[in-house]
């Protein structure tokens, strides 16, 4: 598996300096990223914190990501979070 994935944003966001971010690159999660998520309540906040850490951006910037882009990020970066794809056919 590739250790990084770049996800283009359909709705670009701005960083703290006003620079436009048109894509986010995520590296494979490590324990520190998972611990970063432990500081937040709620599944969405935890996932956003982990992903922000994986992308090397502050959590407040990650919160600017639109829902449509979050869906694509979870789809493409999910495997880097340790979420292995599961079979939907019932076969093991």
Major beta-sheet overview: 2 strands, antiparallel
Please state the average pLDDT score.
90
- Tally the helices: 4
Q: Gap between N and C termini, in Å?
A: 21 Å
Beta fraction of the residues? 15-25%
Low-confidence stretches: none
Subunit organisation of the chains: single chain
Please state the overall shape, judged from the principal axes of the Cα atoms. globular
**What is the alpha-carbon Rg in Å?**
14 Å
Q: What is the string of SSEs from the N terminus onward?
A: EEHHHH
| Count of strand segments | 2
* Strand line-up of the largest beta sheet: 1-2
Helical proportion, percent range: 25-40%
Tally of distinct domains: 1
Give the class from helix and strand content and strand pairing. alpha+beta
Notes on the protein architecture:
With 92 residues, the chain is of the alpha+beta class. The protein has one domain (4-78). The protein has four helices and two strands, in the order ββαααα. It has helices at residues 31-37, 43-55, 59-62, 67-77, and strands at residues 4-14, 20-27. Helix 1 runs antiparallel to helix 2 (43-55). The two termini are 21 Å apart.
């Amino acid at each position: 598996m590739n250790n990084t994935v770049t996800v283009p944003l359909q709705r670009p966001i701005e960083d703290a300096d006003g620079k436009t971010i048109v894509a986010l690159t995520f590296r494979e999660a490590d324990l520190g990223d998972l611990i970063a998520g432990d500081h937040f309540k709620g599944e969405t906040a935890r996932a956003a914190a982990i992903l922000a850490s994986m992308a090397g951006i502050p959590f407040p910037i990650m919160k600017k990501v639109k829902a449509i882009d979050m869906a694509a990020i979870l789809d493409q970066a999910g495997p880097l979070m340790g979420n292995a794809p599961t079979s939907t056919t019932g076969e093991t």
